[in-house]
Amino acid sequence: MAAFANILVGGVFHAAVLFLVAAGLQLVFGVQKIVNLACGSFYALGAYFGITFIQYATQLGISPWLILPGLIISGILLGFIGPPIERMLRSVYGRDESFQLLLTFALVLMFQDVFKFVWGANPRALDSAYLIYGIIRTGDFSVPVYNLLVIAAAVVTAAGLGAFLQRTNYGRILRATAENRDMAEALGVDVRRIYSIVFTLGAVLGTTAGALVVPTAAASLDMAIEFVIEAFAVVVIGGLGSMRGALVGALIVGLIRAYSIVFFPELEVLAIYMIVIAVLIFRPAGLFGRSLA
Amino acid sequence: MKVSPAAIVALCGTCALALLPAVVPPYYAGLMIPFFGYAIALLGFNLLFGYTGQLSFGHAMFLGFGAYGAAVMSGVLGIKSFELVLLTVMVASAAIALPMGLLCVRYVGIFFGMLTLAFGMLFHSFLFKFYSVTGGDSGMRVPRMNILGLEFAQYNKIEFLAGPFYYYCLGILVVAGFVMWRIVHSPFGLHLRTIRDNARKAEYLGVHVHRFRLAAFVISAAFGAAGGAILGFRIGLADPELVYWTQSGQLVFMAVLGGFANFFGPIIGALTFTLLQDQLQSLTEYWRFVLGAILALIVIGFPEGIAGLANDLWRRLARRVA
Predict the structure, then answer these.
(1) Is there a smaller number of Cβ atoms within 10 Å at the N or the C end of chain B?
(2) How many distinct structural domains can be found in chain B?
(3) What are residue B57's DSSP bridge partners?
């Protein structure tokens, strides 16, 4: 039973991180209709930056209680890369999907070498930084407090995003732009500004997720291309453009991974893509997406 | 008899490639083998992408079918005839693509891309995880095979690749190019272009949209497997990296680099990409950055690719002369 619970918490932790990245992907796709392959690179950027931050923090002897807020703040600060990249993507708005995919693919290639240049080719990890807040134990069941805090942060983000999109005026404007760009523009919405903000918000979700994951996992050059494909599985299962879909999709993918690693290690990734294919065939719009027609 | 400009381009290109091993060191002739592999695969890819308007983002899977098929046939079953291997992997790839295509061709745009991507990743994770069958991340060996029943035992592997195998692959590329030319200029090819430009209208005119897309999908799978078998033979190894989604992205990169609107675009793209990657890798360890920057530049500034640029230049020159 305890083993079962351990895996559950591990799966939910993975899902929490996946949700943040997938939410960024959904936001950008929902409003700008662009599939952003580079969201995995934002995640990796956050992770590398997080490692540098923690190293400086420990050198300067900053209280460990400031580590988590510090990571979140550094993730948010990295959002400044959003506007210039959005500026570059402007040239492919409304053009064929292949060009949009390729331009973000170009970003993936470039980011990978930027990481190599700044942080080197070897994976960078921190020794047991996830233990800074201790471990909760009851019998065989044990979980690092840090992981619980990250899960809580993701839940708060999900609730905050939901409230922002549903309850605030700005959220309504975003949804209106997603619904019908031309009509929103005709009604006086500054669509350029909206796009820039949405893309930056999407990037911040990715970088923050990366910064948060770094105390528990290494940052490596391959993490961007590995994670983006997982985030894709999440959004396809949940339905492109749907926030609720991102949440449910992330839980499905996170839990399947966690359980299959323990019980059927061969099926770890296979199972996820089986589900993706099944969803695309039987419910192409995803579990929470709107029908295609 | 009127000679079409395309025929002249094809003839000049073939002659240049045929003379190449005589003038450049064997290293470059050997470097052309992956070019042949990619070019053949891209001819098929572009039937789907350029002519039918379906962007497959999992096309590297078919390269994998070819390479792993070659590994199984020659390494496990001991078949030494490369022609037999080539034909078998093409047929097998087409056979696998048939049910897959039945599921995929109902979708267009991003959903088609996603579904092909998912199939590609499914195959990749199978290759990666089932060590006992596929050798996992270390892959499967592709032993040397005979071509046209000749063993060329007096050549070592590099000489063999730069000599007989080079001309062999050039021959395959010419045949593949000719076959593809006939395909896209047949009524079948016209159907595909009609579907690309307006699927609903095509359907209204009585075109079986799904059936034609499926046929294009299956043909491109066979071409992809042929290219993959050549790639596997050259490295002597079939590994899962060949099937990863970034490899599929690279195929799209090559097609766009060369210009997917032009019949020769993908071949030009494969050539440019292969040479560019080789040169950049020897110049800098940050070659990915440069490739990415070039890709971004092409997507933003020159969506017609190299073939489009050449066409523009040609037209401008012709105008000045006239």
Answers:
(1) N
(2) 1
(3) none
